[in-house]
Amino acid sequence: MMTAPIILVFLLLHNAESSKFTIPEATINDIQAAFNQNKLTSKQLVEFYIQRIRKLNPIHRAVIEVNPDALHLAEIADQERKNKDPISRFGLHGIPVLVKDNIATKDKLNTTAGSYALLNSVVPRDAGVVNKLRESGAIILGKASMTEWAAFRSSSAPGGWNARAKQAVNPYVATLNPCGSSTGSAISVATNMVTVSLGTETDGSILCPSSANSVVGIKPTVGLTSRSGVIPVSPRQDTVGPICRTVADAVYVLDAIVGFDINDPAATRKASKYIPKGGYLKHLKLGRDNEGLSLLRIWQNGAILIENLEIINFNRIISMINGEDIAVSAEFKLALNAYLKNLVSSPVRSLSDVISFNKKYADLERINDYPQDVFLAAQKTNGIGKLEKEVLMNLAKASKCGFEKLMNDNKLDALVTPYSNGSSVLAIGGYPGISVPAGYDKNGRPYGICFGGLKGSEPTLIEIAYGFEQATNLRKPPAIKDQV
């Protein structure tokens, strides 16, 4: 029989071992605590992720480039922390971030949307969201892979494919489509190749890869985060948001990147009114009765689940939404041409130039595998004409008479959908959504649950998503062999 002192020593050793800090799956709070307790430095954290990228990225192809200055930036962060500089008090200080390869960084990294056509082009400045990340003390670790041109080059290319990095691979089930275009952003955080990441969404490209790779993604209200310096698809629908392993981490990133940007003035000024005083972190609280929100316990927790709502003129509204591609195609050509012309230097200056580049370097681009039919359709457009104006009017009507009416008439806090099935509804109206891991099927394939709401409803959606996450704790890391 163990004596009391022996039992006490055993328990102390067990507790010390169980409380030992490890980087994989660590949250921002965990990492900041390790920084403050001198258990970890930013340089050590970056070194860990670079080593992990070297080992895992040849398999999963989630990262296009690693920032050659990342270690130097980490050393600066460590010195700032040592000096107790004011910036070191920010939550993202010293935290590595991967940004999607369509988000500009004015450094040694390329910004190419996964295409050779933009390799070695020079951007005029950091994207608005990157500037805000730097101001918060975050370290730009590199560029995340993506579906080439945000899935707007070819209708047959699979999610996660681009010419530069080739096919991204889902870490849970290799044959499962990693989904959307922010594939690298989702895969990299799921596999612990980075702490947090940024993705972009025009329609489903944050919500879908988050669901398919068992991570958390926030698609903000359009304009809440700046789109300046982001290779565009549709300024009417484009938005930038965080992809992370937890709701709390995603909210930390959201807090850092929202707000007015002089280079995206109209949209960011309009949406700034939605930012709550004191930011979003205060909404990381459990449900209205402090129990958390779970679909399994939704009634006893005080929430009301309304099913099978009748949508008046449903078929007509759906037919209006079906015109989305017509509008986006015309918007894409106009927006991309403007972006390319604004580059300091570039091999291409228009959509037409990109199409010609792909034809000229067909072997390099593997264009014979995935034709550029979406590009060609967009090139045929001629601005916003009569047809496009009619489509845009219908999309606005569909949002107002469909989603907004449904939410307002029934006094709903959120629309709940499986996977990212509601992404088009949220996309055409510029509405926010949050995807949270919700489980795995019998074959181990992940799926998420999406909470969507009206413009500016991020505080409510964060409370709901956080409550669901805390009540269920359904996410589990992928089973990766030869862990670093």
From TrEMBL:
Amidase domain ranges (all copies): 45-272
Keyword field: Signal
Range of residues in the leader sequence: 1-18
Pfam families xrefs: Amidase (PF01425)
Residue ranges the record marks as coiled coil: none
Keyword match Nucleotide-binding: no
Listed InterPro entries: Amidase_dom (IPR023631), AS_sf (IPR036928)
Keyword tRNA-binding attributed: no
Protein name: Amidase signature domain-containing protein
Top-level taxonomy: Eukaryota, Viridiplantae, Streptophyta, Embryophyta, Tracheophyta
